[in-house]
Specification:
The complex is a heterodimer of chains A (409) and B (444). In chain A, 8% of the residues lie in helices and 37% in strands. Chain A has one helix and 27 strands. Chain B has 444 residues and is α+β, with helices and mostly antiparallel strands. Chain B is 53% helix and 15% strand. Chain B is built from eleven helices and ten strands. In chain B, helix 6 packs parallel to helix 8 and helix 6 runs antiparallel to helix 9. The longest helix of chain B is centred in the last third of the chain and has 36 residues. Chain B is elongated and about 90 Å long. The chains are: A mainly beta (409), B alpha+beta (444). At the A-B interface, helix 1, strand 1 and strand 26 of A face helix 11 of B.
């Protein structure tokens, strides 16, 4: 009986000790104020399912989720693959070959569509960039190759619908026939017919207008009639008339640049009709009304140099779109930002090759359940899914590589 | 007259030529959204289907394949009649309802969100149609139809046999039933689910889930191997009853807890449970080989039963929508089905083991061989499932993680204490009844 009493005492003491420790830790976590209320995510390492036909992804530079929750991505396929990665194409190994540039996955991660590449009646970009599926189900594609100064529109099965702008429109004068001719290009951010290396197109269904992040050569946001491609208006940073003058390298301590730097990398319209522009190398988001009137700006990781910190963004799926998910491909993380104040609450992700880590994370999109999808450029070459686990108290600042803690939070 | 006929013929030819026949493949997968609302003597059925799935219908088009919205109405009504009204079978009690009236039909944009709720869907169908100038590629549009069936009473119990399987390789139907008392019942049906009772009586729900539990245990090889491991050394009815009861009680606890949302919803959790199930088989098999302590076997079985209950809950998750308002009844019925399945399996295994050990191989040797084979299989499962589990990144151990971990540790200690207490009570009762000698550990 004494032994039993001892065991009971051990159970009681163990429970008490655990309970007290937990209580103290809980108090300490709350007292430090090192948590914030924000959406919590978990990486899904099994999404998508393996591609068929020994297909492999190249630098992945665009992602979007359509109205059926199908996930679309665009990548640079063989153009960005090393010889060792495309043994089938070079006929020296059993693996692999570049997948078609445009891939469509269903919500479960099955590949359900694939197309893209040069074809009759249009000029496929030298370096495709960005993908968007509009409210009519049409697929828009930009391009940031040397001579890419146009936008393409297809049906979702890849039937060509329209091309706005012509390729090579901004080539500098020179003798194209000369042996030593190397084409060079100059931006013209006031051209109403062509574009300058378009990073991303989004379509606002309310007014049926396309917002063009234009781009890697131009320094503007351009707005088109989404049916005809006719340019209706355009603007530069702070709503200024765009100017293509070279601003030189970004200086975090200098005054904010009065023009966008290249690339202008996104132009997304919120539900309440504001246009959020990714001024990537200036490390800032600028917010405008639809007519180009400047509203406000917010800096993100302002000391980031080189490729900048504001690559792409997505709006949360609550009716107020309370959060922005801002993608930072230089620091390799997804930043969760309050939309009304542009204040960063927390971030997740880190550099690396494991699930939940990034290398050159480039584009982000969100589905109807609030799950996030990211694609990685350079040698990242992949698409990842982050499952929305609802609101939770998460660490303020960086959460690092995501790991599910406890969904009952 | 002849001139008139010739003119009509020419007009017909021109119209036919301008309406390209739509020869297209059956889509890989579609989602159909639908609402059912009984009101008085009418049953309203609102349904949204991708136009892409409307095979053999001549959808009028203009340049580049855009829908000719000025001329699309007849094609839509035909499509709604052929593919929806005639194919969807609705039942009031057990009576099939007649082919419904097509009240209204229209084309919508793929981005339209009105089918998120019944009221907005109805208002949308009643509202103004798309502008005829809209450049909507025909395959990317969706068709909304409003059908109405005559019914005897809005209090009747309804059933549906969707019959939409021919529309695509995979069909998912998101259906909401809006009941007269304001309750809303949500269903996600796949492909061809047969006749689905939308508001089952408790007996109907119970019968369905007994069957589901029965077939689940018979289909689940890992659960069966666990059961086999349990009974190889334990074939005396009294001991068997104790062990199987412990397993049943334990998996019922976690199954019911999961159904009420108390299980962790983390992505790694199913992978962890599947790995632990494989581990449980390996453990039991190894214990059989080295010599099972039968007195403590029920306690270990109870612990592993908790894990298997989570496994059952994953299988049950999708079908709980068919429980109607009888969730607990259905869960208990599922458990009853599992038990019946186990009894059938035991009724086969136990005599077979008796025969095997009596006529083919000595009991000890047979136990070792059988258990080794099972351990081998389960070991492979364990490494495969463990491999999947390990693909999830390693945790960041911080204060918040520790708080959660300590919560689970407390639950673990409480559970261990409960098992220990139960063992003490059983031992005391046994000693009272038979005296101290019989409670010596029974090792084979």
């Amino acid at each position: 009986m004494t032994r039993n009493k001892l065991i009971v005492a051990i159970f009681v003491v163990a429970l008490g000790a655990l309970g007290i420790t937990r209580f103290v830790l809980q108090e300490s976590v709350e007292a430090q104020g090192d948590t914030v209320r924000a959406p919590r995510f978990e990486v899904d390492p099994f999404w998508p399912k393996p591609l068929p036909n020994h297909w492999i992804l190249g630098s992945a530079i665009g992602v979007w989720v359509d109205d059926r929750d199908h996930v679309w991505m665009i990548h640079r396929s063989s153009d960005s693959l090393a010889d060792q990665e495309r043994g089938i194409e070079l006929e020296h190994a059993e693996c692999c070959e570049g997948a078609p540039p445009v891939l469509e996955f269903d919500a479960e991660g099955n590949l359900v569509g694939s197309w893209g590449g040069p074809g009759e009646g249009y000029e496929w970009p030298q370096s495709n960039h960005g993908i968007f599926v509009d409210h009519l189900g049409n697929v828009w594609i930009g391009g940031n190759g040397g001579g890419d100064s146009h936008i393409l529109k297809f049906t979702r099965t890849g039937e060509f619908l329209a091309q706005y702008g012509m390729a090579g429109a901004h080539r500098s004068p020179g003798d194209a026939g000369a042996d030593d001719y190397i084409p060079t290009f100059e931006g013209d951010s006031n051209d109403t017919q062509n574009f300058g290396r378009v990073a991303k197109v989004t379509v606002d269904p309310t007014d049926n207008e396309a917002y063009v992040a234009d781009g890697y050569l131009n320094k503007r946001v351009a707005v088109l009639d989404a049916d005809t491609g006719e340019m209706k208006r355009f603007w530069g940073a702070y709503g200024n008339t765009p100017d293509d003058t070279n601003l030189g390298p970004y200086d975090p301590d200098g005054p904010p640049a009065q023009q966008f730097r290249n690339p202008v990398h996104c132009a997304d319209v919120s539900a309440d009709g504001l246009v959020y522009v990714c001024d990537r190398a200036n490390d800032r988001i600028q917010v405008f009304q639809k007519d180009g009137t400047f509203v406000k700006e917010g800096f993100i990781a302002k000391t980031t140099l080189a490729s900048g910190s504001v690559w792409d963004l997505a709006f949360s799926r609550d009716p107020e779109q309370r959060y922005l998910f801002v993608l930072d491909g230089m620091n390799n993380r997804v930043r969760i930002v309050l939309r009304d104040t542009l204040e960063e609450l927390t971030s997740f992700g880190d550099g690396g090759r494991q699930p939940g880590q990034f290398y050159g994370v480039h584009s982000i999109a969100i589905d109807s359940a609030g799950n996030l999808y990211t694609t990685e450029t350079w040698e990242g070459k992949r698409i990842q899914k982050f499952v929305n686990m609802g609101m939770a108290d998460v660490p303020r600042g960086s959460q690092g590589t995501l790991w599910p803690t406890n969904s009952t939070q | 007259m002849r001139v008139r006929l010739a003119a009509m013929f020419v007009v017909a030819l021109v119209i036919a030529a301008s309406v390209p026949a739509v020869a297209h493949d059956i889509p890989n997968a579609i989602i159909v959204q639908a609402f059912l609302k009984p009101e008085g003597d009418r049953l309203r059925f609102l349904v949204r289907v991708p136009l892409q799935a409307m095979s053999d219908i001549d959808v009028p088009q203009r340049e580049l394949g855009y829908l000719d919205l000025a001329r699309v109405d007849t094609a839509l009504r035909d499509a709604a009649t052929i593919w929806i009204a005639r194919e969807v079978a609705l039942y009031e009690e057990d009576r099939r309802l007649p082919v419904p009236d097509v009240v209204a039909v229209r084309v919508s944009l793929p981005s339209d969100r009105s089918f998120q709720a019944y009221e907005t869907a109805l208002a949308h169908i009643e509202g103004s149609p798309l502008s005829e100038e809209t450049d909507l590629y025909w395959e990317q549009g969706v068709m909304d139809a409003w059908l109405e069936y005559p019914i005897a009473s809005d209090q009747s119990r309804l059933a549906i046999d969707p019959g939409l399987r021919p529309l695509a390789q995979r069909v998912t139907i998101a259906l909401q039933l809006l009941m007269p008392d304001g309750r809303v019942r949500v269903f996600e049906l796949h492909d061809d689910p047969g006749r689905v009772l939308l508001d089952p009586r408790w007996g109907q729900a119970a019968a369905r889930f007994v069957g589901s539990g029965f077939t689940h245990i018979l289909d689940g090889l890992d659960h069966l191997l666990f059961l086999l491991c349990l009974v190889i050394p334990v074939r005396r009815v009294r001991t068997l009853v104790g062990v199987v009861t412990a397993f049943t009680v334990a998996h019922s606890v976690t199954l019911i807890a999961s159904a009420y949302g108390l299980a962790p919803g983390a992505l790694w959790f199913p992978a962890l449970v599947e790995t632990l199930i494989a581990m449980s088989i390996v453990y039991m098999a190894l214990e059989n080989i080295v010599g099972a302590h039968l007195m403590r076997r029920w306690a270990i079985t109870f612990a592993f039963g908790l894990v298997h209950g989570f496994g059952f809950s994953f299988a049950l998750r999708e079908s709980l929508q068919f429980a109607g308002s009888h969730l607990l009844t259905s869960l208990l019925a599922f458990n009853v089905g599992v038990e019946l399945g186990q009894l059938v399996v035991l009724a086969v295994i136990v005599p077979a083991l008796h025969v095997l050990f009596r006529f083919v191989v000595a009991e000890r040797m047979g136990t070792i061989i059988l258990s080794a084979v099972i351990a081998h299989t389960a070991w492979h499962w364990m490494t495969e499932r463990g491999g999947q589990l390990l693909q999830f990144p390693a945790p960041t151990i911080d204060a918040a993680w520790l708080v959660n971990f300590l919560g689970w540790a407390m639950a673990g200690v409480a559970l261990t204490a409960a098992i220990w207490l139960a063992r003490m009570l059983i031992r005391a009762k046994t000693e009272q009844k038979y005296g101290k000698r019989v409670v010596k550990p029974d090792v084979i």
